[in-house]
Specification:
With 709 residues, the chain is of the alpha+beta class. The protein has 27 helices and 20 strands. It folds into 5 domains: 87 residues, DNA Primase, Chain A, CATH 3.90.580.10; 180 residues, DNA primase, catalytic core, N-terminal domain (DNA primase DNAg catalytic core, N-terminal domain, Alpha-Beta Complex), CATH 3.90.980.10; 115 residues, Dna Topoisomerase Vi A Subunit, Chain: A, domain 2, CATH 3.40.1360.10; 46 residues, no CATH class; 190 residues, no CATH class.
Length: 709
């Protein structure tokens, strides 16, 4: 069976190559690529690289390389058709059974009008020997027309024509899930696309012979036709200008206009009727007449990962016209469920972070503001394979949907679809802009930097779930809490098997609903199995390796303030005390160099830590001094196994307990020093601080015991 090349290109570009190869070797992110030990030959130092943008792999050790089909054939020993079928199953791209289904179509020959005989008369004008027909044919006799008051130039329709066909809502579309292939040079720039007008536009009608046409070439010529039409229709150009679209953006996104008229495409491309029908841009009414799908609409060309035009979206200029958007239908070159608008343009700008928005104008506005990586759906919710692709490019994906009911339902559907692929190193974030803004209007009303700030503060998945469900259940009732918790458990069950996020999500929301932790899963009880002989300070350092996010805020200052240590001092002592003696202790005051180094290193590494706990700890260890690294490395493996076995969800109590012991040790040393060198006021302060600290810890432990019982 012969499979069209464009289908093979789609399969290779949209396959999740990182996941396919990741089944056979461990791949780790290295900049914009992934690297690991080559699965084809034994090696200890990684020299095997996978490029998810171009969706190719290469080993610098043994020289193997290729695409997804090649890997399945060479490594998994699949036949060509088995590899194609496997990728078809993974990507959802249907491999046509009909061998004739490809991007070619039969062009219709146009005969030149017969030349009239030249009569020999001395008064006749010089004969015209040109065989070229005019660019647009004009009928010999103009039919009667009726005009429609549309608010724009009149749309002339022959009175004997079929009634206006019913509008067909083709607004259901999907997402692109594309990589970058060989149409890019080594630097990732597109080298295959020319924005200029095609030289062989069939608007230039003449005596031409029938020949096979190519749908990709036809689409490029149609895009150029729409682009040219925009410049000659001021009311359409005014729409884009009123939305703040610059000339540069008009060119980048190839924006255009589909004029009035029922058959403007047939007039412009009379040889390509079969191709126009194959693309769904020309349709047939019930009475048997052909008509153009897109009329009096601004046009958004849709491009694949190579920058080729594969379809069009048309927006009505009048907001009262329904449907507001119409997308061209599926065709041999256009599969809506794999298309994301703006993906190609973002890849050309080497976008690093990705943002899913709702509208084409949002994509263009963000791109125009220098915020690259925005992509839009085409009417339907994003599917699992497309989310997987975006999360491969960046492990954090932000979803920006409108705040209305429809927008939030779309966000929730996306959440549900995403759960099966949300491994612990992937993250979804949710952004709902204030005051019913979308990205386009928000940038205009505020600024680009304000939009960037909104993206930076997008809500994590766990918080979004709780906020979304808490608005739908009455949490003042036990029944409401039970229903919310039941839905959370159903959601978490969809997470990948072995996901630690599953347990943490359930536990986190359980705590928000007022639940109590069981003593069997507290960090303190888990450490009963940990017999290391390490000091309290070193155990605290291991806790910071295991749970570095505890240091996002100054835990030492928090503990000092919660214990109200300085508040308990008598007023007459406060009046006599030096100012420095009353401030909360800092890490440097503890005179523990190793603890001080660990705290500073964790805080410095926080923005760059991988989501996996073990990987994050090793990242921190690699940034410590050799001596500190050696001490902690010896006990890390046992410490990690012990706490992982107990599925510990909260470290606050354990860290408070260990830190209180470290503080007590410091205050005791300070007390001994003051006894040797008496300073009555400072000695009284230190003793009172130690007493307050211990009283607070005992009260907290008593409260926890009462809750557990």
């Amino acid at each position: 069976m012969s499979i069209p090349n464009h289908i093979l290109e789609q399969l290779n570009s949209q396959a999740d190559l990182v996941s396919i190869i990741g089944r056979h070797t461990t791949l780790k992110r290295a900049g914009n690529e992934f690297k690991g030990c080559c699965p084809f030959h034994g090696e200890k130092s990684p020299s095997f690289y996978v490029n998810p943008q171009k969706n190719i792999y290469h080993c610098f050790g043994c020289g193997v390389g290729g695409n997804a089909i090649g890997f399945l054939r060479d490594y998994e020993n699949l036949t060509f058709m088995e590899a194609v079928d496997e990728l078809s199953r993974q990507t959802g791209i249907e491999v046509p059974k009909d061998e004739q289904k490809n991007v070619s179509y039969q062009r219709t020959p146009i005969q030149s009008a017969p030349k009239a005989p030249i009569l020999p008369t001395p008064t006749s004008a010089p004969p015209n020997y040109s065989e070229q027909a005019p660019a647009f044919s004009v009928p010999d006799a103009a039919p009667e027309y009726e005009t429609h008051d549309s608010g724009y130039p009149h749309d002339a329709v022959p009175m004997d024509a079929a009634p206006y066909p019913p509008m067909i809502d083709d607004s259901d579309a999907g997402y692109i899930d594309n990589g970058i292939d060989s149409s890019y040079d080594d630097m990732g720039y597109d080298v295959s696309f020319d924005n200029g007008l095609p030289a062989d536009m069939s608007m230039m009608n003449g005596a031409e012979t029938a020949a096979d046409g190519n749908l990709y070439e036809l689409l490029e010529r149609i895009a150029a036709f729409y682009r040219q039409s925009l410049t000659s229709h001021p009311h359409a150009m005014h729409y884009f200008q009123s939305r703040g679209i610059t000339d540069a953006s008009l060119d980048t996104f190839m924006l255009g206009y589909a004029p009035f008229g029922w058959q403007h495409l047939e007039h412009a491309f009379p040889q390509d009727i079969e191709g126009l029908r194959a693309l769904g841009l020309v349709r047939r009414s019930e009475s048997g007449r052909d008509y153009d799908l897109l009329r009096d609409r601004v046009i958004f060309p849709i491009r694949d990962n190579q920058g080729r035009v594969i379809g069009f979206a048309g927006r009505a200029l009048d907001n009262e016209v329904k449907p507001k958007y119409i997308n061209s239908s599926d065709s041999p070159v256009f599969h809506k469920q794999h298309v994301l608008y703006g993906y190609y343009e973002s890849r050309k700008q080497r976008a690093d972070s990705w943002l899913v928005v709702e509208g084409y104008m949002d994509v263009i506005a963000l791109y125009q503001a220098g915020i690259y990586g925005a992509v839009a759906s085409m009417g339907t919710a994003i599917n699992e394979s497309q989310i997987s692709r975006l999360l491969t490019l960046n492990p954090t994906l932000t979803l920006c949907f409108d705040g209305d009911s429809a927008g939030q339902k779309a966000a929730w559907r996306t959440l549900e679809v995403s759960l099966p692929i949300l491994s612990d190193d992937k993250e979804l974030r949710f952004l709902t802009l204030p005051d019913a803004h979308d990205p386009d209007t928000y940038i205009k009303a505020h600024s680009t930097e304000a939009m960037r700030e909104q993206i930076r503060h997008a809500v994590p998945l766990s918080q979004y779930i709780y906020a979304y469900l808490s608005e739908r259940y009455d949490l003042s009732l036990v029944e409401g809490k039970a229903k919310l918790m039941a839905q959370v458990k159903a959601l978490s069950a969809a997470l990948p098997k072995g996901s630690s996020f599953r347990y943490l999500l359930n536990n986190d929301i359980y705590q928000k609903l007022g639940g109590k932790r069981k003593p069997s899963i507290t960090a303190k009880d888990a450490l009963l199995d940990f017999d290391s002989g390490m000091t309290v300070s070193q155990q605290l350092q291991l806790c910071f390796l295991y749970c570095p996010h505890a240091l996002r805020h100054d835990v030492l200052t928090r503990l000092w303030q919660q214990a109200r240590i300085n508040d308990a001092l008598p007023q007459h002592i406060k009046q006599k005390a030096p100012a420095d003696a009353l401030r909360p202790l800092a890490w440097a005051d503890l005179q523990d160099p190793m603890l001080f180094e660990v705290v500073n290193t964790v805080q410095r590494c926080l923005p760059f830590l991988p989501a996996d706990t073990n990987a994050g700890a090793h990242f921190i260890l690699a940034n410590l001094s050799a001596d500190t690294q050696a001490v902690l490395s010896r006990s890390w493996a046992e410490f990690y196994r012990t706490l992982s076995k107990h599925e510990v969800s909260n470290f606050d109590d354990l860290i408070d307990n260990l830190l209180t012991q470290v503080l007590n040790r410091h205050l005791q040393k300070k007390t001994q020093a003051l006894i040797s060198n008496p300073n009555p006021v400072t000695l009284a302060i230190v003793r009172k601080q130690s007493q307050c600290l211990n009283d607070w810890l005992r009260a907290k432990q008593a409260e926890q015991s009462a809750q557990m019982s």
